[in-house]
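Usage

Read records sequentially. Each one opens with the input sequence:
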Amino acid sequence: MAAQLDAKDAKPPYAFKRVDAYDGGIGAFATRDLKRGEVILHEPPLVTATMATLEQRVAALDEKTRKRLFSLCDWRAERAKTQKTALGVFQANGYPCPTAREPDAAGVFLKFSRFNHSCKPNAHHAWRKGERWIFATHDVKEGSELTTHYVDLFMTSEDRKKALKERFGFDCVCRGCEPTPKLRVAFSDARRAHMRQLDEQIYDKASRGKHEAAIRDVTERLIMLEEEELDSPAAVARACDDAAQAAAHANDKKTEKEWLERARAESKLCEPPESSELEELERRLAKLGV
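and closes with the structure output:
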């Protein structure tokens, strides 16, 4: 069964407080121990919009929602000591919220916007059923900061830092970027670059009939994800699905089922109940009939 908020937990599993590392910004912290795959939060957006509809949508907000929206960071305006803008708030806090009608829409979330970035995050988020769902990617101790990621985690440390500075205005000092000695950063960069390469070549190998080689690449990627502490249920599920598809190309139903079952188990730790993604995995397993 997919992870859910326990009814007994009247108090949210997170609380907000100031974080000195981010110039006094706000962060989310665990109020109790969390298990891998546990739901931390699910939240509808304050507003969704495209670039073309942004000003109109924000202008139509009621006063309370508008006040909440503009309580969030617009780092460019704050740095320039000018008035916040809707575009600035969206650029600093927006996440993709695609719909059939607006596939390029973004949304801003009052609570989730307080979750800071880490290059080794302990929370995963997904846009499902009109809400942003946040799950623990690893066991989290009470008092630990809950972090997500704002940029591609498979870039080098320097490229991640550059992207974060340009897009969000801060210097990343997370444990993925600032370990000692610096040699560890170089090893981390090499692993992440290799994982990206593996990801890119798995489908190519499977489509060219190199099914066993593709599955070996998946296995190697899973090992490296764990070494980098990037083995979130979502990342593991995706890799396992890749292996299942490689087995399907080989018409190896037994191996395909084994990998699909693992993908399903991991997906239940990063998907809300009865999500279309889980339903699709169930459909594929039922179709195998093995």
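Summary fields computed downstream for this record:
- The longest strand covers residues 14-19.
- The chain has two domains: 14-168, 183-288.
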